[in-house]
Design brief:
It is built from 22 helices and 10 strands. It is α+β, with helices and mostly antiparallel strands. The protein folds into 4 domains: 92 residues, no CATH class; 115 residues, Phosphorylase Kinase, domain 1 (2-Layer Sandwich); 189 residues, no CATH class; 80 residues.
């Protein structure tokens, strides 16, 4: 099939900008097909001389190409398995900042989405205070019974959806073409990478989903004394408009103001780390973009997060995996760290636990001979994922997003307290989760859940018997109406029903016996 001309035009423009900025100098052409090597050599002929670092070159090129490529760069920063660790770290510096679009366009988008004039919705509506690739934020006021309250109104850029979708279709075309001609592209599963990016962008393009993420996290942290989430105003929220309470606090990026306020910065650094770990391990739902500009300290000294467009979610198995490996490194129980990888199915069973444990020890032991300031939990996880790749552990996007977020969070914590002891800070959160979920209380709750399952099964037995009775009536009716069943068919149905009844009885006894053992153990 001949690709649409628009794909080729978009990719050609992107290639030209990347070549001009010198980005292809970062690419090792050795493993690439001959035609790709020739293309890179030709592209480097138009490279303009620069003394900038590779990070600035790549960031400049992606920013020039627009919102889709900024998002692509941010996404690839979470996939060192695809772009390599060095480039992934460089992409961390990519700033998602764009010039604001006109006030009139923002107001027109709000009126169309909410069905009323801006003057009727807000007591006042100010100019944009921040602008990124997908949306921009305005400060506004809404009328209340006691006066007015200040809110933040986030509005999608006009036309952003069609542009992003067109660029992603071009990305898909490029990924399929690369996989067709390159074994390395197939190994990296570029089509799957683009599909993951497309799902991520789809979520960011519907601000109702971001509102739902903020609301869910608010429920999770409602009892936390040192962390909160701005409340969502659902009446002023739509597909392309999100309204939340205004956060009147100091951003963590403004260290001078934090110091003038007399805040305990080391304590604040510990709060950042422990809050993130609670969200990841306790809740299985974490803010995946916790850079200093998205974190504030309110007037009561609590940490407040904003911008919930990029979130991470961990299943129970993944949360247990994270908690146990962190606790294993803290306590130097390397066998347990190794066993957890096998129990989770992340490392294939044909490998030996002892051999893998040796590799884990090679990562863990050096951290116990260093000062707290030299120990990086994020770096340890990076090394861990590098080692596990040697043992055929497949890429786990949710764990890579977790690791990328931990890099950012650790950087924020160390910015506030350069001597922050990551392990001492993490230990109480991880220990509490393990004791709660794997200790006696967790075992009892698991048993209670098992009893509940048995209860539900027993409760369904009358329904099963009623279905059997209806089946008998249907057979009789079918026979009376002249639809004859062979005698062996009728006998087979009867035998199947008998086997089911015997199986149900045995299953109930086995389940009851196992539950008794579990409760007594």
């Amino acid at each position: 099939m001949i690709p649409p001309l628009s794909h080729l035009i978009r990719l050609a423009r992107a290639g030209f900008v990347l070549a001009r900025e010198g980005v292809f100098a970062l690419v090792d052409p050795t493993p690439l097909p001959g035609i790709a090597q020739l293309g890179i050599r030709l592209a480097r002929l138009i490279e303009r001389p620069r003394s900038d670092s590779s990070a600035i070159r790549l960031s400049a090129a992606l920013s020039t190409l627009g919102p889709s490529y900024v998002k692509l760069g941010q996404f690839l920063a979470t996939r060192p398995d695809v772009v390599g660790l060095a480039i992934a770290q460089d992409l961390e510096s990519l700033q998602d900042k764009m010039p604001p679009f006109p006030q009139a366009e923002a107001e027109a988008a709000i009126e169309k989405a909410l069905g009323r004039p801006v003057q009727a919705l807000f007591a006042s509506f100010g100019p944009p205070v921040a602008a990124a690739s997908i949306a921009q934020v305005h400060r506004a006021e809404v009328a209340t019974e006691s006066g007015t309250k200040t809110v933040a109104v986030k509005v999608l850029r006009p036309g952003i959806e069609s542009n992003l979708k067109a660029d992603i279709r071009a990305f898909f075309f490029f990924a399929r073409l690369a996989e067709k001609h390159s074994a390395e592209a197939r190994r990296l599963r570029l089509t799957e990478v683009v599909a993951t990016l497309a799902r991520s962008v789809t979520v960011e393009l519907d601000l109702r989903l971001e509102a739902a993420a903020a609301s869910e996290m608010a429920d999770n942290v409602k009892d936390d004394p040192d962390f909160r989430v701005p409340a969502v105003d659902w009446e002023l929220t739509a597909h392309n408009v999100l309204t939340t309470e205004w956060v009147s606090g100091t951003p963590l990026s403004d260290r001078a103001t934090l110091e003038r306020r007399g805040l305990d910065l080391p304590k604040l650094g510990r709060t950042v780390i422990q809050s993130f770990l609670r969200h990841a391990v306790r809740d299985g739902f974490f803010h995946a973009d916790m850079h200093p500009g998205n974190l504030f300290v309110d007037d009561e000294g609590r940490l407040v997060a904003v911008d919930f467009g990029i979130m991470g979610r961990l299943t129970e198995k993944e949360r247990r995996f994270l908690a146990e490996i962190l606790f294993g490194f803290i306590t130097r129980d390397y066998r347990r760290v190794a066993e957890v990888h096998f129990e989770a199915g992340y490392v294939p069973p044909h490998h030996a636990v002892e051999s893998f444990m040796q590799a884990i020890r090679a990562i863990g032991e050096p951290i116990h001979n260093r000062t707290a300031a030299d120990i990086s939990m994020a770096k340890l996880l990076t090394l861990l994922f590098e080692v596990t790749s040697l043992y055929d552990m497949r890429t786990r996007p949710e764990l890579l997003l977790l690791q990328k977020t931990m890099v950012v969070v650790e950087g924020v914590g160390r910015m506030l307290d350069p001597s922050l002891d990551m392990w001492h800070t993490a230990e109480p959160v991880v220990r509490a989760w393990l004791e709660r979920n794997l200790g006696p209380v967790g075992r009892v709750e698991g048993a209670v859940e098992g009893v509940g399952e048995v209860g539900r099964f027993i409760g369904a037995v009358p329904g099963l018997l009623a279905r059997a009775s209806r089946l008998t009536d249907q057979i009789d009716l079918a026979t009376r109406d002249g639809i004859l069943l062979a005698p062996d068919t009728v006998a087979g149905i009867a035998e199947a029903e008998a086997r089911k009844n015997r199986g149900t009885t045995v299953a109930l006894w086995v389940i009851a016996f196992l539950l008794l053992l579990h409760l007594l153990g």
